[in-house]
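> Could you send the ABC transporter ATP-binding protein prediction when you get a chance?

Sure thing. Input:
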Amino acid sequence: MIVTESLSMRYPRVTALDRLSLDIGPGVTGLVGANGAGKSTLIKILLGLSPATEGRAAVLGLDVATSGAAIREQVGYMPEHDCLPPDVSATEFVVHMARMSGLPPAAARERTADTLRHVGLYEERYRPIGGYSTGMKQRVKLAQALVHDPRLVLLDEPTNGLDPVGRDEMLGLIRRIHTDFGISVLVTSHLLGELERTCDHVVVIDGGSLLRSSSTSDFTRITTTLAVEVTDSDEHPDGTAALRDKLTAAGITLHAGTEEGLPGAGHVLLLEAAGEETYDTVRDTVAGLGLGLVRMEQRRHHIAEVFRPGGADRGAERGVDQAADQAVGQVPDQVAGQGTDQSTEAQAR
Ligand SMILES: Nc1ncnc2c1ncn2[C@@H]1O[C@H](COP(=O)(O)OP(=O)(O)OP(=O)(O)O)[C@@H](O)[C@H]1O
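Output:
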């Protein structure tokens, strides 16, 4: 779908892209990087709107340097910033964009109605956009990117400004663009957890250079760290401490420290799962102490680990789980030791 070879974009004072080589296939791909990493610059080059200083790029097999117009016929683009005219309705605006893409009037109206329905805008589509909420405006921007039935859409920060419910709805829509219509998606986001949940593949850039490009399942592969949370009891007012002592005596390797658990429960112990038998040992030890087992879960890696010195392996070594919806700019300082898979999922809702 997208290939870049040693692509660079140098402004007088800053290098926005630095010899970036990518090969992005069909499906939903996340492009992640901190502010200024070069995401928007890359999108503009891919659309043929801005020429690269060096290197080459092709979208759908078309060279961005010579085939910008042909690329834009087959590619939809949702810009990051608010760019909608306030005094026309969503219907008028999206019909206009469909006509600009070359659809005849009747087809433009029909596709507009279908697309606005698909993004969840119904009777409000006849009202002026100026009165819309941020979520509704984001939907209009998405609709105009889809209205000409592109093969690929480039979505620049589509969840910007949305509340957690709005974000989840937008992420669901993005997934369905691919599953229902077979359109491939390149989506940028600062929120790493969003990409983990939505994308098949994730590309991480930093300072215009490629940090890593892998399938999401590779980024989030399972670690050997097991998180165990238990309740306290009358006999063991500190259930976690009692369990820690028993497991250590049983020869299980525990990671230093604990994490906060669910309200009303205890703390979370992190330990090394040598094999299946570790699960049995934990279960039997918890039962033997008469404690309640709140959870026993195998930890996964998270994309955020790519941004920390030493990368993913170091995060796993320390048994540190990441806040799944951590923004890239906040990595690495605020991530260490925070959150669990469950609590961060809860934050996202
Ligand atoms: N027209 C321009 N002239 C000079 N510098 C620019 C220009 N456009 C972008 N830059 C710089 O290039 C770098 C990359 O910017 P870009 O907008 O691509 O980053 P980004 O990853 O999209 O960040 P954000 O998420 O904040 O939009 C930044 O340092 C930015 O200031």
